[in-house]
Specification:
Layout lengths: L25 E8 L2 E9 L5 E5 L13 H5 L3 E5 L16 H14 L5 E6 L1 H12 L4 E7 L8 H4 L8
Parallel strand pairs: 3-4, 3-5, 5-6
Antiparallel strand pairs: 1-2, 2-4
Helix pairs in contact: 2-3
């Protein structure tokens, strides 16, 4: 479903020529996230608690397609393509996790979501960790999946001396 007319702060799709698959019960949205157009796929119950999904690199919202319909039975589901991925804009900005987290936060707010559960995979989990640090008052909970976070979990996960390797 490509119902752009009802989306808040809708911007045009900045990525042309890339396939844009649909998922039954979900709509594509492009929102202005502090000057960066981010693509989100939204569905489920608008009056229910929200779940925001962030994929890893080089993935898109499509990585969540098999769980989104089940989540939609009980939640307002929002899957966001991070800047530079999928159908989100590829701006000439810093792509550090705090900057990307600020853009994701702006996108979530532009979609009218004030409190949410956050699930993120791979590099998306790095961004989610920054979101949890900066915007914890808006998070109901966080699931970081399949991710070593530099400076947090990686020092213990990656042996640095030959005896531990």
């Amino acid at each position: 479903m490509n119902d752009h007319a009802s989306a808040p702060h809708v911007c045009g799709n900045p990525v042309r020529g890339l396939p844009l698959p649909d998922l039954a019960g979900f709509a594509h949205r492009w929102v202005d996230a502090d000057g960066v157009r981010l693509h989100a796929v939204e569905g489920g119950r608008p009056d229910a608690p929200a779940v925001v999904l962030l994929a890893g690199f080089p993935q898109t919202w499509w990585a969540w397609r098999k769980v989104m319909p089940d989540l939609a039975d009980r939640f307002h589901v929002v899957a966001i393509d991070l800047p530079g991925q999928g159908h989100s804009e590829r701006p000439d900005i810093s792509y550090d996790t705090h900057t990307v987290a600020a853009h994701v936060h702006a996108a979530v707010e532009a979609l009218g979501v004030s409190a949410y559960w956050l699930a993120a995979h791979d590099i998306g989990a790095w961004v989610a960790f920054s979101l949890a640090l900066e915007y914890r008052s808006q998070l109901r909970g966080v699931a970081l999946l399949d991710a070593g976070i530099p400076g947090i979990t990686l020092p213990d996960a990656v042996p640095t001396d030959a005896e531990r390797a």
